[in-house]
């Protein structure tokens, strides 16, 4: 198993910001965490609200906590709302059930970290996360 380096994390963030600019999105907050959910890097664009860190972290760490993207967690909410809402107190960094949290995997498909983004519509946050992961030459969980 490999890990996400600090250089890769900053490349992910830069790639996400570039995609956000291409799409003319609102200011973003982007966090990259390791496989344990610990922050490797975080940046918030000028004008992004201060709550973006906690939201982005909840998307990334929540994805790792359940082993699926935060979009899939959001989809699960329709059928298992009580379960999803109960995760907040037990997940160390919380769980945000909205698209924008993507697990990063190694060549064997093992999680090596995750990216979480908050700032615009959740679909756009997710698009930026995927662009950032690709910019760093890493692989998003399928």
Question: In a nutshell, what does this entry contain?
Answer:
This protein has 142 residues and is of the alpha+beta class. The chain contains 5 helices and 5 strands; from the N terminus they run αββαααββαβ. β3 and β4 (111-118) form a beta hairpin.
Output the keywords:
single chain; Beta-Lactamase
Description:
With 142 residues, this protein is an alpha+beta fold. It has a single domain, classed as Haem-degrading domain (Beta-Lactamase, 2-Layer Sandwich). It is 45% helix and 19% strand. The chain has five helices and five strands, in the order αββαααββαβ. It has helices at 6-22, 52-66, 70-77, 81-90, 122-135, and strands at 29-34, 39-44, 101-105, 111-118, 139-140. The chain has a five-stranded antiparallel sheet with strand order 2-1-4-3-5. A hairpin with a 4-residue loop joins β1 and β2. α1 (6-22) crosses α5 (122-135) and α3 packs across α4. The protein starts with 5 loop residues before the first helix and ends with a strand. 46% of the residues are buried. The model has no long low-confidence stretch (mean pLDDT 96).
In CATH, the architecture is 2-Layer Sandwich
Q: What's the total count of β strands?
A: 5
Tally the helices: 5
Order of helices and strands: HEEHHHEEHE
Q: How many domains make up the coordinates?
A: 1
In this structure, how is the largest beta sheet organized? 5 strands, antiparallel
Query: What is the percentage of strand-forming residues?
Result: 15-25%
Report, as a whole number of angstroms, the end-to-end distance: 17 Å
Given helix and strand content, the structural type is alpha+beta
Order of strands, main sheet, comes to 2-1-4-3-5
> Into which percent range does the helicity of residues fall?
40-55%
Sum up the overall morphology in one term: globular
- Uncertain residue ranges: none
The fold-level CATH name is Beta-Lactamase
Estimated radius of gyration:
14 Å
CATH class: Alpha Beta
Determine the mean pLDDT.
Answer: 96
By CATH, the superfamily comes out as Haem-degrading domain
């Amino acid at each position: 198993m490999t890990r996400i380096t600090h250089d890769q994390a900053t490349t992910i963030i830069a790639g996400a910001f570039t995609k956000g600019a291409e799409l003319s999105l609102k200011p973003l907050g982007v966090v990259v965490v390791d496989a344990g959910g610990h922050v490797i890097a975080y940046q918030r664009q000028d004008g992004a609200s201060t709550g973006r860190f906690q939201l982005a972290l909840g998307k990334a760490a929540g994805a790792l906590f359940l082993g699926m993207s935060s979009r899939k967690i959001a989809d699960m909410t329709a059928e298992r709302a009580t379960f999803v809402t109960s995760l907040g107190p037990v997940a160390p960094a919380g769980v945000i059930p909205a698209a924008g949290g993507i697990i990063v995997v190694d060549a064997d498909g093992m999680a090596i970290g995750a990216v979480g983004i908050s700032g615009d519509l959740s679909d756009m946050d997710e698009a930026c996360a995927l662009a950032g992961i690709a910019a760093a030459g890493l692989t998003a969980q399928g």
